[in-house]
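Subject: design request, 277 residues
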């Protein structure tokens, strides 16, 4: 069994690993992240890997605010050919499957995915069994509500403590089932049932939300609506600069993985920072 800790913890130089987003969906919030078919997904993943992505995150269901669920059949039809093709084309890249469904996760792992990225933190009761069965890394995210209603009226008394408590409970289920903390990544869920104030507090808190020091921390901030509220950038196409600014802070906050739409720009940002440092 592979030792996954080196790939889900930040690099030896302290910089986070870059995860490129490949959405085989017609409705993900950033149009440029959408791949219409297997061949387009493979081409996008190949370009991202060449530009510095160590992880490719493949998803077949949009979880943007207001999104409706898709059927398991549709999700499988979208992600399975893409993951098979990416694995054949890129044998050394790490692949995560972005899914809330145990059936999709199991099939993805069987055909070459390496990690499960579950925005619902195992809302599917069978997801825990899938992770234990395959001995794979897993990323659990905090989300208040569901994608279709999570931004209606998010509310917290203390967002940092509440998110940490939630993730502590979710990761405890894994540890009790025998999963090592070093195979677990947590994600504060920026934009998933949070307003701008909540998002900024969570980003500022850095690793305070991580329940165990052996666990990884992932940020998924790229081009999100927080930049509409923070910078007045209404369209996702106009949010790259803000995304890079937050990514630059990920070094200081000891983030392990940054999930991004723009691999080239993020890789260049980190390279320039490293050169100056």
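Subject: RE: design request

Done. Sequence follows.
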């Amino acid at each position: 069994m592979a030792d996954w800790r080196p790939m889900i913890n930040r690099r030896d130089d302290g910089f986070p690993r870059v995860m490129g987003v490949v959405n085989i969906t017609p409705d993900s919030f950033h149009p440029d992240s959408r791949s219409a078919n297997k061949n387009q997904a493979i081409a996008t993943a190949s370009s991202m890997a060449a530009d510095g992505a160590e992880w490719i995150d493949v998803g077949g269901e949009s979880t943007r605010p207001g999104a409706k669920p898709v059927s398991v059949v549709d999700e499988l039809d979208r992600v399975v050919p893409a993951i098979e093709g990416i694995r054949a084309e890129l044998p050394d890249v790490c692949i995560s499957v972005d899914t809330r469904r145990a059936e999709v996760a199991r099939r993805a792992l069987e055909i070459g995915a390496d990690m499960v990225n579950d925005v619902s933190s195992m809302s599917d009761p069978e997801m825990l069994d899938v992770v234990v069965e395959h001995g794979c890394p897993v990323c659990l995210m905090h989300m208040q509500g569901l994608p279709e209603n999570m931004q209606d009226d998010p509310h917290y008394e203390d967002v940092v403590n509440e998110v940490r408590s939630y993730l502590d409970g979710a990761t405890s289920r894994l540890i009790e089932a025998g999963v090592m903390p070093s195979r677990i990544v947590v994600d504060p869920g920026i934009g998933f049932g949070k307003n701008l104030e909540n998002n900024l507090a969570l980003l500022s808190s850095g690793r305070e939300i991580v329940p165990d020091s052996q666990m990884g921390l992932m940020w998924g901030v790229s081009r999100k609506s927080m930049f509409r509220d923070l910078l007045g950038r209404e369209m996702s196409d106009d949010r790259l600069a803000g995304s890079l600014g937050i990514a630059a802070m990920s070094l200081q906050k000891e983030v392990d993985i940054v999930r991004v739409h723009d691999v080239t720009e993020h890789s260049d940002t980190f390279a320039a920072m490293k050169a100056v440092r």
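The first helix runs from residue 5 to 8.
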